[in-house]
């Protein structure tokens, strides 16, 4: 899909399909319960309470694949990695490299733009305890497959965490890509060529990883810069 206008239109159609999805009863019930009951600190905030589509540059050369929207982050704001601490970690790193217009994003209407980067989740609905089932992952996989098919400009995929890594490998394999055997193992900074694309791994910027020091800003900034450079994106250096 070499025509940028056709690519953007196809992503818009995919977005419309994603936000209407009700395939997984457990996820539908949970995302809507969270949006209805809220939490005390956000009781006056409107909640999205629907599947969260991908976000970013329709001509992206780098696709970042996360796990799933946070219950009070993307499930509230309607935009992936927006409104929670994991997102702040990600947006700061993208902004530092000149790939994002804002260093923090708490609302879906804040005007944030990405350059050369798009972000999606392996599972598009917020799951209980942030743990989708394998069946839910596989039910949502066609959306990631479609997004990858449309984003023919994306030469690098940065998978955040083991879940994102495995989901991406399964989608690529089902699309007929030459995934190596044995299947490549996830690791922070791992790289594997799969046909015309390169898959890169990073620890997920969850609070469990960032608060414990398993993933630090320099670590994440380094793997993000490496991914951007492999994708041919100019990055800002300090």
**Binned strand content:** 5-15%
Shape: globular
Number of strands: 6
Helix coverage percent: 25-40%
pLDDT averaged residue by residue:
96
The level-1 CATH class: Alpha Beta
Q: Kindly give the count of domains.
A: 1
What does this structure look like?
By secondary structure, the protein is an alpha/beta fold. It has one domain: Uracil-DNA Glycosylase, subunit E. Helix content is 39%, strand content 11%. It is built from eight helices and six strands, in the order ααββααβαβαββαα. It has a six-stranded mixed beta sheet with strand order 1-3-2-4-6-5. Helix 1 (4-19) packs antiparallel against helix 5 (134-150), helix 4 (85-96) packs across helix 8 (217-230) and helix 5 (134-150) crosses helix 6. The model has no long low-confidence stretch (mean pLDDT 96).
Characterize this entry briefly.
This protein is of the alpha/beta class. The protein has helices at residues 4-19, 25-37, 74-77, 85-96, 134-150, 161-174, 207-210, 217-230, and strands at residues 55-56, 62-66, 117-121, 156-160, 191-194, 197-202.
Layout of secondary structure:
Elements: H1 4-19, H2 25-37, E1 55-56, E2 62-66, H3 74-77, H4 85-96, E3 117-121, H5 134-150, E4 156-160, H6 161-174, E5 191-194, E6 197-202, H7 207-210, H8 217-230
Parallel strand pairs: 2-3, 2-4, 4-6
Antiparallel strand pairs: 1-3, 5-6
Characteristic terms for this protein:
238 residues, alpha/beta, Uracil-DNA Glycosylase, subunit E, six-stranded mixed β-sheet, 8 helices, 6 strands, 39% helix, 11% strand
